[in-house]
Amino acid sequence: MNIRFYNARILPMEQADGTVQTGELWVRDDRIALVGDPKGREPLAFDREIDCKGNLILPGFKNAHTHSAMTFLRSFADDKPLHNWLHEDVFPMEAHLTGDDIYALTKLAVLEYVSGGVTAAFDMYYHVERIAECARDTGFRFVICGAANDFGGTAESTRRDFERLNAFDPLVSCRIGFHAEYTTSEPLLRDLAALAGELREPVFTHLSETAAEVDGCIERTGMSPIAYLDSLGMFNYGGGGFHMVHPREGDIEIMKKRGLYVCTNPASNIKLSSGVAPIETYYREGIPVAIGTDGPASNNCLDMFREMFLTTGLQKLTVGAAAANPVRVLHSACSVGAKMMGLDQCDCLKEGKQADVVMLDLHMPNMQPINNIAKNVVYSGSKSNVALTMVAGRILYERGRYTFDVDPEEVYAKADAIIARIRKAEGR
Amino acid sequence: MNIRFYNARILPMEQADGTVQTGELWVRDDRIALVGDPKGREPLAFDREIDCKGNLILPGFKNAHTHSAMTFLRSFADDKPLHNWLHEDVFPMEAHLTGDDIYALTKLAVLEYVSGGVTAAFDMYYHVERIAECARDTGFRFVICGAANDFGGTAESTRRDFERLNAFDPLVSCRIGFHAEYTTSEPLLRDLAALAGELREPVFTHLSETAAEVDGCIERTGMSPIAYLDSLGMFNYGGGGFHMVHPREGDIEIMKKRGLYVCTNPASNIKLSSGVAPIETYYREGIPVAIGTDGPASNNCLDMFREMFLTTGLQKLTVGAAAANPVRVLHSACSVGAKMMGLDQCDCLKEGKQADVVMLDLHMPNMQPINNIAKNVVYSGSKSNVALTMVAGRILYERGRYTFDVDPEEVYAKADAIIARIRKAEGR
User: Fold this and answer.
1) Average pLDDT over residues B164-185
2) Mean pLDDT, all residues of chain B
3) Which among A307, A334, A361 is the end of a domain?
4) Least CA distance to A272: which residue of chain B?
5) Cα–Cα distance, A396 to A387 (Å, whole number)
6) Which ranges of chain A have pLDDT less than 70?
7) Quick check: is B416 in a domain?
8) What pLDDT digit, counting tens, does each position of B3-17 carry?
9) Of B370, B379, B419, which has the smallest distance from its Cβ to A369's Cβ?
10) Contact call for B372 and A303, based on CB within 8 A
11) CA–CA separation, B108 vs B246, rounded Å?
12) Does A380 sit within 8 Å of B299, measured CB to CB?
């Protein structure tokens, strides 16, 4: 399909630059064929031409850390700090999940992603082949992060997943990862570090999410989680940490040396009482910051608008009102996340890049008047502004309707049946 | 008009109780005629019957502190702490506003309110007669709060506004108020306290919003703003404070003694770096807490879902993961706000109460599965879930359309013209 968007405002987001272009965006099959002024360019044979009526086109949001299938625990496990939430609610309930469950629950998350302008998610969960199938069947883009830990997964299984998932479908990719330092024994960590070294791949994990995690690691190893993992050679080819709320002295130097990414998850961090990540410091130090929702059991929604507002708002609260420039936050949400996930072709609107595109309706009261579009999006934007979501040139959501092969009611019914079955099995 | 909602889930919110009823809600003219089971009740002559398909009916959100017409400064004045924001950006720009401007800009806010499930706003601004006209012309409910201060307004003008606005239209009411201790000299404060005493009325004001405000008052008077105002007899008949981020020792005792309300505005408080109000303490002490957005120049949107999530999330961050129970927060947003505003007939769904009602679409991915409806609304809800907003029995918004006499594009164009004119006059 070739699609023409015209009468558009465009935020290309190649840099953290809030300058809005006006003009057109052309899509040829899965790629962007033109951004801006079409003068002198031969028109494509367009299958569809969309009058944007001055609405805003920007790169889709990249949800750079999530556990999509945890939709089944939305509003089930709440109001507890991380450790209790994980051990009392999450682990026992998760133990009942089948591959079919994970396929169905991930599809529920995809509905939420595309209706909220998200075009790709960095997903850490189990039964990874079913997440990959969900990407293929829905048209949504998943980057799957390894989740090995002492309760499941080895370096060998991580390698197998890495190889087969990266060959599965253009919408699917995989990165080396593990659950967290505090759930993974040193022999397994060493095996994973060796694998990453052999493949020359970056490694991603939950990192320095809570003060208790960091203190526990220091007690066991004499080092912070970042320093300890780095001492094992884990980050020799880069990688990144999800959350990164509690860096300790020396950690930022390691992050800079290894080129580590941070994915911040502010809604989850406040809801679980984990703290506020020092994003303004990361920005100042040149550490690339992506943004994610974390899973729907801790958040409890998958809304990148809420995360963007919190990313800047919590810095203003803790550092000062000028902290966390909103254009930079928007760039984190659209572009830096793509780079962290290895989606170098999905980071901005530019000829030749993948057509992962969102249109936001500016003809709504929360976007008016238009004093500053980037600020409007970050400070005032909402999922209700999402008019269209396109992944790899295919429109998946438009004006309240899902335009891929899915029956939302069937997805909701399946999710309800799954949680009912597990609640019954657990007697709760 | 008589309207029947059937196949509904219903959260009456008479108490902070998340128990969901199923059944019907009947509306006769401007009032609720039935909630729950219609068995044995004579049906009304219904003009319209709405199949809710299991969706949720609850009392509309009460935006208990806002400056609606500040829409013109959305995304214009940002990234500064309160004092600089107010003196460098807000006051100079506001000086150019006419009554016509305020009517048009308030109408823009009404579009945002009703599309976000808000059925009433406690509005503090100028040219109050134009806000009242906006209520009458749109069908939205405004409670207007006096805004007297050293730059405009006297006890006499406050009394005149109080008398004429409370007689203007059933959708309009007025409460005694002033801008803030730090903008109002003691003679004027004494006059206002005398007026409130004479009328036996509560008094509302910006109160203890920033640490600097509180410190300044202590320096000038030897007392915190609450203690100082109370020493003038300001709260002899109750009242309340907007923001209330920084109570000092003894303040909570005064608040309890006088029955003061708090309206918390968490998005504005973090964005202006003012701090986090001790809501969990207020809840524990039995101080009634309402929720508001503050004006769109500081927030920058008028979204009670974001405020609800922040109200609980910031308490979890600062107190612990169990703080600020979401059902209590929902009750604050729907019911306590009504009581603070003097809207005793709009606080819950009950026979005889005003039909200020919202329907939230649960057939959307962020509301599924339905483990706990109240938690879904507070932790995961969004303006995109608002399917219908009714004020005084009249549907003002339904499924993306405004159903009162308004052309949104005309409202947006007017707001654009106003800010363009003022920017030109100010050379910025």
Assistant:
1) 98
2) 97
3) A334
4) B321
5) 11
6) none
7) no
8) 999 999 999 999 999
9) B419
10) no
11) 32
12) yes
Expressed as residue numbers, the domain containing B13 is: 2-59+353-402
In chain A, what residues touch B319 (CB-CB under 8 Å)? 273
> Chain B residue closest to A106 (CA)?
B365
Pair (A239, A328) in one structural domain? yes
Which of B55, B110, B317, B406 is the mutation pick for testing A, counting most A CBs within 10 A? B317
Does residue B171 sit in the same domain as residue B44? no
Considering only CB atoms, which chain B residues are within 8 Å of A416? 368-370
Residue B383 lies in a domain: yes
B114 contacts on A by Cβ (under 8 Å) = none
The CATH number covering residue A168 comes to 3.20.20.140
Looking at the structure of chain A, the number of domains it has is 2
- Cβ contacts of A382 on chain B, cutoff 8 Å: 301, 303, 382-384
Print burial letters for A267-296: b (CB count within 10 Å at least 16), e (below 16).
Answer: bbbbbbbbbbbbbbebbeeebbbbbbbbbb
Q: From the CA atom positions of chain A, what is the Rg in Å?
A: 21
* Residues in chain B closer than 8 A to A375 (CB atoms): 75, 78, 300
Same domain flag for B124 and B225:
yes
Determine, yes or no, domain membership for B410.
no
User: A374 CA to chain B: closest CA distance, Å?
Assistant: 9
- Structure tokens, B78: 């940002």
Q: Is the peptide bond before B372 cis (omega within 30 degrees of 0)?
A: no
Q: Is the domain of B269 the same as that of B378?
A: no
Point out the domain boundary residue: A312, A334, A356: A334
* Tokens describing residue B79: 């990234």
Looking at residue B289, its pLDDT comes to: 98
Q: Does B359 reside within a domain?
A: yes
Strand boundaries in B40-87, DSSP class E: 48-51, 56-59, 61-66
**Beta-carbon separation of B78 and A370 below 8 A:** no
* Interface touch B275/A301, C-beta < 8 Å: no
Q: What pLDDT score was predicted for residue B137?
A: 98
What Cα–Cα distance (Å) separates residue B179 from each residue in A197, B142, B149, B206, B258?
Answer: 63, 18, 6, 6, 20
Give B303's pLDDT tier (boundaries 50, 70, 90). Answer: very high
Same-domain status, A41 and A143: no
Q: Could you tell me the pTM of the whole model?
A: 0.98
pLDDT tens readout for residues B84-105: 999 999 999 999 999 999 999 9
Residue-by-residue DSSP string for A323-373: -S-HHHHHHIIIIIHHHHTT-TTSSS--TTSB--EEEE--SSGGG-S-S-H
Report ipTM for this prediction: 0.98
